[in-house]
Amino acid sequence: MRCAGFFLGCSVPSSLKRVRCRHSSAPLLSDLLEEESKTHSARGRIGRASRFIQKIEEKRQSNSTDIFLIASFSLMVIEALSSSFTIYCLDYGANASVKAKVVVAYYALYAALSCILLVNAVLSAIRVRQAYKKKEINAKQQSVQLAGEALTITTGLMWITISLASITMALSSSVHMQLAAMCLAVMAPALGALSAFLRVYEVSVSYKKEKLDVARRGDSASGPAVMSQRRKNWYCFQSGLFLTIALFEFAHFLCHVYEAYLLQGNTHLLYNIQDRVLLGTQIFLTCVFILLEIAKVYTEKGAESPQSSLVNSFEDRSLGDNSNTPEYASTATLVQHSSASNARTAPAMA
Fold it and tell me: What is the model's pLDDT at position 235?
C-alpha cells in the first residue's frame, strides 16, 4: 500500500504537470487579439500597396493614351494645314522647290504619326485579348474589336506606304509607285470609313452584353435600375456620336476618291490641286472631326469617372465586410469592360 501510494503520488503530479503544460501551451486571448490585429494591419498594407500599384498602372496607361490622343489630333491638324497651304498656293503661288520641301515634310510627319497610331492599334488589340481571357468581354465583342483594330492597323500600314512612296516620287519619278499610290489612296480611306461604322456596331454589342449581365444578376433595387437607365442613355449618345463620325468618315472617303482621281497617283503633287470646293470641304471635315473627337474623349472620361469611385469603394470595403463583394465586383467588371471596349481612342486614319 505504501508502494502503491508512492507510485500513485508520483503519477498524480506527473498528470498535473501534463495538464499544466497543456494549458500553458494554449494561446492566450491577448495573443489572439495581437495576431488578429497584425493580420488586419497586414491586409491594410497589402490593400494600400495594391491600390498604389493600380494607380501607377492607371497613370501609365493614361500617359500612353494622352500620347496617342496628341498624335491623333496632330494628324488631323496637319491635314487641315495641308489643305490651307494648297489654297495659299492657289491665291499667292509658290515655287516648285518650296512645294517639294513642304510635301516631304508633310508626308514624313504623316508617316511618323501614323506609326504612333499603328502602335496604339496593336496595344489595343493586346488589351482586347487580355480582357477576353479575364472574361470581361464575350467572344462576339472580341471578334468585333479585333476586326476594328485589324482594319486600323491595315489602314495605318497603307498610309505609311503612301507617305514613303510620295516622298520617293518627290525626289524621283516612278510609274509603278504612281499606280500603287493611287490604289492605296482609295483603299486606305475606304477601310477607315469601314472601321468607323464597325465602331458603331461595337457600341451596340457592348450595350447588349451589359444589359444581359444586369439581367442575369437579377437586380431589382431602385439603385441599379437608375444606373442601368443612365448607362442606356450613355450608350445611345455614344452610338449617335460614333454614327456621326462614321458618316463624316464616309464623306472624307469620297473626298479622297476625288482627290485620287485628280492626282492620278501623283500624290507628291498634292499642292497642285486647284479645286477650291474639294479643299474647302476637306478643311471643314477636318475641323468637324476635331470637335467630334474632343466630344468623344470627354464623353468616355465622364462615363468612366463616376464608376471608378465605386471600384475604389469596393477595394476599401473588401478589407472589412465581404458580404457585398458580388455587387461591387460586378460593377468593377463593367468598368473594366467599358475601358476595354473604348480602348481604341485614336480615330481611324482617313
Answer: 85
Secondary structure letter of residue 275 according to DSSP: -
Q: What is the pTM of this model?
A: 0.70
- Taking the domains of the chain in order of start, what are their residue ranges? 66-341
Geometric angle at alpha carbon 21, from 19 and 26, rounded to 5°: 100
Residue 264 DSSP SS3: coil
Amino acid making up residue 20? R
Count the neighbouring beta carbons within 10 Å of the beta carbon of residue 184.
21
Q: Could you tell me the three cell numbers for 108?
A: 514624313
Distances (CA, A) of 139 to 82, 102, 204, 215: 42, 46, 15, 19
**C-alpha cell belonging to residue 124:** 489595343
Cell numbers found for residue 207 = 450595350
DSSP summary character for residue 197: H
Least confident of 62-71, 122-131, 193-202, 206-215: 62-71
User: What are the cell numbers at 162?
Assistant: 503612301
Instruction: Report the phi/psi class of residue 235: left, alpha or beta, with left for phi > 0 and alpha for psi in -120 to 50.
Output: alpha
Which pLDDT tens digit goes with each residue over 301-348? Answer: 765 554 444 334 434 444 344 333 333 333 333 333 333 333 343 434
* Pair 331, 112: CB distance under 8 Å: no
93: left (phi over 0), alpha (psi -120 to 50) or beta: left
User: What angle, 0 to 180 degrees and rounded to 10, lies between the N-to-C axes of helices 276-317 and 29-92?
Assistant: 180
Give the residue among 40, 17, 21, 77 at the shortest CA–CA distance from 318. 40
d(CA 313, CA 120): 31
The whole-angstrom separation of Cα 270 and Cα 289 is: 21
Q: What is the pLDDT of residues 191-208, one digit of tens each?
A: 999 999 999 999 888 888
Task: Classify the C-alpha dihedral 268-270-271-272 as positive or negative.
Answer: positive
